[in-house]
């Protein structure tokens, strides 16, 4: 199976190794769509013929499921074509999310086919029709299962290569079709040995499975459109790379926006010593933005956060408050710590990072702030605490 997939990629895609290129990525997507159209149209014609000859609603349901898959492949091609459009005044980050929208359309089409055949299968259960079993149609159904299995593997191969949600969805859908086609084939064979209307029941099982597959695909494809949490691997890579540059001592407030595959924008705060030359650190930040953006294929913006040089007073306050933070299981980390003011009137300013879901189950944000302030005041009543609660969504 992998040999055929590699052959098709080498044959029809120039510079297939350069998957960061938008043209190459688009070519992968179009190839996946074209192969899907051809395979599904062949399967539709084969199964429809078998279903009509055998008077099997389950086989005909499976046939039209393949036809919807062919239509889905057309939508996928259109999605890749539109996603490949360059950025313009109305869409400064390009049209990459069109790929997600095309995957969503595919998912709705899958669900509509399933709902229609739930109705047809119920009618067949209530009004059974005798099934005509023949050996050659049975063999054709077995062969169709192998075709779908290969198509699932091919879509997965291409989808993983270019990290395409549309093709990964098509792979899952095709794998589901392997299951449904297997059920249909079993019911067709069983009709030779029983007069029970098994065809209608298996048709119902197939239809319900199609609806469930559509629902799963909708759930998976709508998340990036709404704004899902970024890939943990990407998050760790960004943090580790930023920290690798000279004079950057800490990072926080990482935000990643996904505008489609290969179109990510990220911003992060980098902690730097406050006594360093502005020109020197600006050059380091510029270099980091440029090099990391190129390496990870993202658009990275780094905000500089000057951290005050630790005096004995600041270090003592930091260590004491860090102990308080450390023993609070709701708090993940602390950053932007500073002491502002002179004499007896001083402000202690810092941010703490929490998991909002965990915090919500136990207490409010105001209550957490109050608990921290109470603990600090018991040690340093002279400090006025200004605390910002940051939510960690990465």
Short description:
With 394 residues, this protein is of the alpha/beta class. 63% of the residues lie in helices and 15% in strands.
What features would you describe in this structure?
A hairpin with a 5-residue loop joins strand 1 and strand 2. The strands form two sheets. The protein has a three-stranded mixed beta sheet, covered by helices on one side. It has 394 residues and is of the alpha/beta class. The protein has twelve helices and six strands.
Output mean pLDDT: 82
Number of helices: 12
What's the end-to-end separation, in Å? 37 Å
Strand order of the largest sheet: 1-2-3
Report low-confidence residues grouped into runs of 5 or more.
none
How does the SSE layout of this entry go?
Elements: H1 2-12, H2 22-54, H3 57-83, H4 98-126, H5 135-162, H6 165-190, H7 198-226, H8 232-243, E1 250-258, E2 264-273, H9 278-296, E3 298-307, H10 312-326, E4 331-342, E5 345-354, H11 356-362, H12 365-377, E6 383-391
Parallel strand pairs: 2-3, 5-6
Antiparallel strand pairs: 1-2, 4-5
Helix pairs in contact: 2-3, 2-5, 3-4, 3-6, 3-7, 4-6, 4-7, 5-6, 6-7, 8-9
Question: Can you tag this structure with a few keywords?
Answer:
single chain; 394 residues; alpha/beta; three-stranded mixed sheet; 6 strands
